[in-house]
Design brief:
alpha+beta, C8orf32 fold, 5 helices, 17% helix
Length: 290
Protein backbone atom coordinates (compact mmCIF):
# COMPACT_ATOMS: atom_id res chain seq x y z
CA UNK A 1 0.00 0.00 0.00
CA UNK A 2 1.44 3.33 -1.05
CA UNK A 3 1.26 6.54 0.99
CA UNK A 4 -0.49 9.48 -0.63
CA UNK A 5 0.04 13.20 -0.16
CA UNK A 6 -1.09 16.62 -1.31
CA UNK A 7 0.59 19.89 -2.22
CA UNK A 8 0.88 22.73 0.29
CA UNK A 9 -2.10 24.48 -1.32
CA UNK A 10 -4.57 22.08 0.27
CA UNK A 11 -3.52 21.84 3.92
CA UNK A 12 -5.09 23.97 6.63
CA UNK A 13 -3.13 26.26 8.91
CA UNK A 14 -3.79 26.10 12.65
CA UNK A 15 -3.16 29.16 14.86
CA UNK A 16 0.17 28.89 16.69
CA UNK A 17 0.08 27.53 20.24
CA UNK A 18 -3.35 25.91 20.02
CA UNK A 19 -3.68 22.23 20.89
CA UNK A 20 -5.74 20.24 18.39
CA UNK A 21 -7.90 17.13 18.70
CA UNK A 22 -7.83 15.08 15.49
CA UNK A 23 -10.40 12.37 14.77
CA UNK A 24 -9.05 9.69 12.42
CA UNK A 25 -10.70 6.73 10.70
CA UNK A 26 -8.64 4.47 8.41
CA UNK A 27 -10.18 1.50 6.59
CA UNK A 28 -8.27 -0.98 4.41
CA UNK A 29 -10.15 -3.78 2.66
CA UNK A 30 -8.79 -6.56 0.45
CA UNK A 31 -11.24 -8.62 -1.62
CA UNK A 32 -9.92 -11.97 -2.85
CA UNK A 33 -10.63 -13.56 -6.21
CA UNK A 34 -10.82 -16.93 -4.42
CA UNK A 35 -11.28 -17.87 -0.74
CA UNK A 36 -8.04 -17.37 1.18
CA UNK A 37 -5.84 -20.31 2.10
CA UNK A 38 -3.11 -18.61 4.13
CA UNK A 39 -1.67 -15.18 4.83
CA UNK A 40 0.11 -13.11 7.46
CA UNK A 41 -0.05 -9.34 7.75
CA UNK A 42 1.88 -6.88 9.92
CA UNK A 43 -0.23 -3.88 10.93
CA UNK A 44 1.36 -0.61 12.04
CA UNK A 45 -1.67 1.61 12.58
CA UNK A 46 -1.38 2.82 16.20
CA UNK A 47 -0.07 6.40 16.54
CA UNK A 48 3.03 6.99 18.62
CA UNK A 49 2.89 8.63 22.03
CA UNK A 50 5.66 11.18 22.01
CA UNK A 51 6.45 14.88 22.17
CA UNK A 52 3.70 16.83 20.44
CA UNK A 53 1.09 14.09 20.32
CA UNK A 54 -0.81 11.73 22.62
CA UNK A 55 -3.59 9.19 22.10
CA UNK A 56 -6.95 10.02 23.66
CA UNK A 57 -8.58 6.81 22.38
CA UNK A 58 -7.62 4.34 19.65
CA UNK A 59 -8.64 0.91 18.37
CA UNK A 60 -7.59 -1.46 15.58
CA UNK A 61 -10.13 -4.11 14.53
CA UNK A 62 -10.30 -6.55 11.63
CA UNK A 63 -12.56 -9.05 9.89
CA UNK A 64 -11.37 -12.10 8.01
CA UNK A 65 -8.31 -12.60 10.23
CA UNK A 66 -7.25 -13.41 13.78
CA UNK A 67 -4.61 -11.71 15.89
CA UNK A 68 -1.48 -13.81 16.35
CA UNK A 69 0.73 -11.54 18.45
CA UNK A 70 1.18 -7.89 19.43
CA UNK A 71 4.64 -6.37 19.92
CA UNK A 72 6.80 -3.25 19.70
CA UNK A 73 9.28 -3.60 16.82
CA UNK A 74 12.90 -2.43 16.60
CA UNK A 75 11.79 1.06 15.51
CA UNK A 76 9.41 1.46 18.47
CA UNK A 77 6.31 0.89 16.35
CA UNK A 78 3.23 -0.72 17.89
CA UNK A 79 2.74 -3.76 15.65
CA UNK A 80 0.03 -6.39 15.25
CA UNK A 81 0.60 -9.68 13.44
CA UNK A 82 -2.62 -11.18 12.10
CA UNK A 83 -3.30 -14.41 10.23
CA UNK A 84 -6.02 -14.82 7.62
CA UNK A 85 -8.92 -17.07 8.49
CA UNK A 86 -9.04 -20.05 6.16
CA UNK A 87 -11.68 -19.55 3.49
CA UNK A 88 -11.94 -15.79 4.06
CA UNK A 89 -13.26 -13.91 1.04
CA UNK A 90 -12.02 -10.53 2.24
CA UNK A 91 -9.79 -8.89 4.85
CA UNK A 92 -10.98 -5.66 6.46
CA UNK A 93 -8.73 -3.63 8.80
CA UNK A 94 -10.12 -0.59 10.60
CA UNK A 95 -8.08 1.82 12.73
CA UNK A 96 -9.81 4.75 14.38
CA UNK A 97 -9.65 7.08 17.33
CA UNK A 98 -8.67 10.51 18.58
CA UNK A 99 -5.19 12.01 18.92
CA UNK A 100 -4.25 15.25 20.68
CA UNK A 101 -1.48 17.30 19.05
CA UNK A 102 0.35 20.53 19.79
CA UNK A 103 2.86 22.47 17.73
CA UNK A 104 6.51 21.67 18.49
CA UNK A 105 7.89 23.23 15.28
CA UNK A 106 8.62 19.74 14.02
CA UNK A 107 10.93 18.91 16.95
CA UNK A 108 10.43 15.39 18.30
CA UNK A 109 13.43 15.40 20.65
CA UNK A 110 16.22 13.09 21.68
CA UNK A 111 16.64 9.56 20.38
CA UNK A 112 15.11 6.66 22.29
CA UNK A 113 14.29 2.99 21.89
CA UNK A 114 16.46 -0.06 21.28
CA UNK A 115 17.84 0.78 17.84
CA UNK A 116 21.10 2.78 18.00
CA UNK A 117 21.24 6.14 16.27
CA UNK A 118 23.95 5.10 13.83
CA UNK A 119 21.56 2.59 12.20
CA UNK A 120 19.69 5.54 10.67
CA UNK A 121 22.74 6.39 8.55
CA UNK A 122 22.50 3.02 6.81
CA UNK A 123 21.42 2.99 3.18
CA UNK A 124 18.68 0.62 2.03
CA UNK A 125 17.65 -0.58 -1.45
CA UNK A 126 15.03 2.20 -1.58
CA UNK A 127 17.39 4.94 -0.36
CA UNK A 128 20.76 3.99 -1.89
CA UNK A 129 22.28 7.14 -3.46
CA UNK A 130 23.26 7.49 -7.10
CA UNK A 131 24.39 10.41 -9.24
CA UNK A 132 21.06 12.28 -9.03
CA UNK A 133 21.00 12.07 -5.23
CA UNK A 134 24.64 13.18 -5.02
CA UNK A 135 23.92 16.22 -7.18
CA UNK A 136 21.08 17.29 -4.89
CA UNK A 137 23.27 16.84 -1.80
CA UNK A 138 26.08 18.84 -3.37
CA UNK A 139 23.73 21.78 -3.94
CA UNK A 140 23.22 21.97 -0.19
CA UNK A 141 26.80 21.10 0.76
CA UNK A 142 28.15 22.88 3.84
CA UNK A 143 26.76 26.33 3.04
CA UNK A 144 25.10 26.57 6.46
CA UNK A 145 26.94 26.35 9.76
CA UNK A 146 24.04 25.04 11.84
CA UNK A 147 22.52 21.66 11.09
CA UNK A 148 18.85 22.66 11.15
CA UNK A 149 19.42 25.34 8.50
CA UNK A 150 21.15 22.77 6.29
CA UNK A 151 18.26 20.37 6.69
CA UNK A 152 15.68 23.04 5.86
CA UNK A 153 17.74 23.98 2.81
CA UNK A 154 17.78 20.33 1.79
CA UNK A 155 13.99 20.12 2.12
CA UNK A 156 13.48 23.18 -0.07
CA UNK A 157 16.02 21.95 -2.64
CA UNK A 158 14.30 18.57 -3.01
CA UNK A 159 10.90 20.30 -3.26
CA UNK A 160 12.27 22.56 -6.00
CA UNK A 161 13.95 19.84 -8.07
CA UNK A 162 11.41 17.01 -7.68
CA UNK A 163 7.87 18.15 -8.47
CA UNK A 164 4.87 16.51 -6.84
CA UNK A 165 3.13 14.44 -9.50
CA UNK A 166 0.99 11.33 -9.16
CA UNK A 167 1.22 8.40 -11.53
CA UNK A 168 4.92 8.76 -12.30
CA UNK A 169 6.27 6.40 -9.63
CA UNK A 170 5.26 3.19 -7.87
CA UNK A 171 5.70 1.52 -4.51
CA UNK A 172 9.05 0.01 -5.56
CA UNK A 173 10.48 3.25 -6.99
CA UNK A 174 13.83 4.12 -5.40
CA UNK A 175 15.00 7.52 -4.25
CA UNK A 176 17.55 7.62 -7.07
CA UNK A 177 14.96 6.77 -9.71
CA UNK A 178 12.54 9.45 -8.52
CA UNK A 179 15.32 12.04 -8.22
CA UNK A 180 16.53 11.28 -11.74
CA UNK A 181 12.96 11.51 -13.09
CA UNK A 182 12.34 14.78 -11.26
CA UNK A 183 8.87 13.81 -10.06
CA UNK A 184 7.06 11.71 -7.47
CA UNK A 185 4.79 11.81 -4.44
CA UNK A 186 5.39 12.05 -0.70
CA UNK A 187 6.92 8.58 -0.45
CA UNK A 188 9.49 9.54 -3.10
CA UNK A 189 10.16 12.98 -1.60
CA UNK A 190 10.76 11.31 1.75
CA UNK A 191 13.14 8.70 0.36
CA UNK A 192 15.09 11.36 -1.54
CA UNK A 193 15.40 13.57 1.54
CA UNK A 194 16.52 10.62 3.66
CA UNK A 195 19.11 9.51 1.10
CA UNK A 196 20.54 13.04 0.77
CA UNK A 197 20.53 13.66 4.53
CA UNK A 198 22.50 10.47 5.13
CA UNK A 199 25.03 11.53 2.49
CA UNK A 200 25.41 14.80 4.40
CA UNK A 201 26.11 12.84 7.59
CA UNK A 202 22.70 12.99 9.30
CA UNK A 203 20.80 10.05 10.74
CA UNK A 204 17.43 10.10 8.96
CA UNK A 205 14.24 8.06 9.05
CA UNK A 206 10.92 7.57 7.27
CA UNK A 207 7.63 8.48 8.99
CA UNK A 208 4.18 7.24 8.00
CA UNK A 209 1.12 8.90 9.47
CA UNK A 210 -1.76 11.26 8.84
CA UNK A 211 -2.18 14.86 7.72
CA UNK A 212 -5.33 16.94 8.14
CA UNK A 213 -6.23 18.89 4.97
CA UNK A 214 -8.56 21.87 4.66
CA UNK A 215 -10.33 20.92 1.43
CA UNK A 216 -11.50 17.44 2.38
CA UNK A 217 -12.11 15.00 5.22
CA UNK A 218 -11.99 11.93 2.97
CA UNK A 219 -8.50 11.12 1.66
CA UNK A 220 -6.96 8.51 -0.61
CA UNK A 221 -4.40 7.14 1.83
CA UNK A 222 -2.01 8.05 4.63
CA UNK A 223 0.84 10.56 4.44
CA UNK A 224 4.65 10.32 4.71
CA UNK A 225 7.49 12.64 5.70
CA UNK A 226 11.07 12.45 6.98
CA UNK A 227 12.84 13.08 10.27
CA UNK A 228 16.54 13.85 10.63
CA UNK A 229 18.66 14.00 13.76
CA UNK A 230 20.28 17.35 14.57
CA UNK A 231 22.70 17.71 17.48
CA UNK A 232 21.12 19.58 20.36
CA UNK A 233 17.54 19.30 19.12
CA UNK A 234 17.30 15.59 18.37
CA UNK A 235 14.82 14.35 15.76
CA UNK A 236 13.22 17.06 13.61
CA UNK A 237 10.51 16.50 10.99
CA UNK A 238 10.56 17.66 7.35
CA UNK A 239 7.63 17.29 4.96
CA UNK A 240 9.16 17.87 1.53
CA UNK A 241 5.85 17.57 -0.33
CA UNK A 242 4.46 20.54 1.58
CA UNK A 243 7.81 22.28 2.27
CA UNK A 244 7.18 22.61 6.02
CA UNK A 245 8.01 20.96 9.30
CA UNK A 246 5.10 19.00 10.83
CA UNK A 247 2.75 20.84 13.18
CA UNK A 248 -0.61 20.14 14.84
CA UNK A 249 -2.10 18.76 11.60
CA UNK A 250 0.29 15.79 11.59
CA UNK A 251 0.01 12.47 13.43
CA UNK A 252 3.05 10.18 13.36
CA UNK A 253 2.25 6.46 13.36
CA UNK A 254 5.35 4.44 12.38
CA UNK A 255 9.02 5.08 11.64
CA UNK A 256 11.83 3.13 9.99
CA UNK A 257 14.77 3.26 7.62
CA UNK A 258 12.40 3.52 4.64
CA UNK A 259 8.81 2.82 3.60
CA UNK A 260 9.08 -0.95 4.07
CA UNK A 261 9.76 -0.53 7.82
CA UNK A 262 6.89 1.91 8.38
CA UNK A 263 4.20 0.67 5.96
CA UNK A 264 0.74 0.71 7.59
CA UNK A 265 0.00 -2.83 6.30
CA UNK A 266 2.51 -5.32 4.93
CA UNK A 267 2.85 -9.07 4.78
CA UNK A 268 3.15 -12.36 3.00
CA UNK A 269 1.21 -13.45 -0.06
CA UNK A 270 -2.36 -14.58 0.52
CA UNK A 271 -1.81 -17.50 -1.85
CA UNK A 272 -4.54 -16.19 -4.19
CA UNK A 273 -4.78 -13.23 -6.51
CA UNK A 274 -6.34 -10.13 -4.95
CA UNK A 275 -9.51 -9.01 -6.64
CA UNK A 276 -9.57 -5.50 -5.23
CA UNK A 277 -8.12 -3.09 -2.69
CA UNK A 278 -10.09 -0.30 -1.05
CA UNK A 279 -8.51 2.33 1.20
CA UNK A 280 -10.40 5.09 3.01
CA UNK A 281 -8.81 7.66 5.33
CA UNK A 282 -10.70 10.40 7.15
CA UNK A 283 -8.95 13.08 9.23
CA UNK A 284 -10.84 15.95 10.82
CA UNK A 285 -10.49 18.36 13.69
CA UNK A 286 -12.84 18.15 16.68
CA UNK A 287 -13.64 20.86 19.18
CA UNK A 288 -11.85 20.58 22.51
CA UNK A 289 -14.13 19.79 25.43
CA UNK A 290 -14.32 22.52 28.03
Amino acid sequence: MRSACRSNKTIAFTPEGRAVRLKIAHLTRYDFAEPAQYGLQQIRLTPKTRRGQSIEDWSVTFEGARQQVQFVDEFNNQTLLIGLEEGAEFLSIRAEGTVLTDDQSGIVGQHGGWTPLWIYRRKTPLTAPGEAIRQISQRVGSAFNDEVSRLHALMMTVAELVRYETGTTGVATTAEEAAAAGSGVCQDHTHIFISCARLLGFPARYVSGYLMMDDRVQQDASHAWAEAYAEGLGWVGFDVSNAISPDTRYVAVATGLDYTDAAPVSGLSFGNAQQGLEVSVQVQQQQQQQ
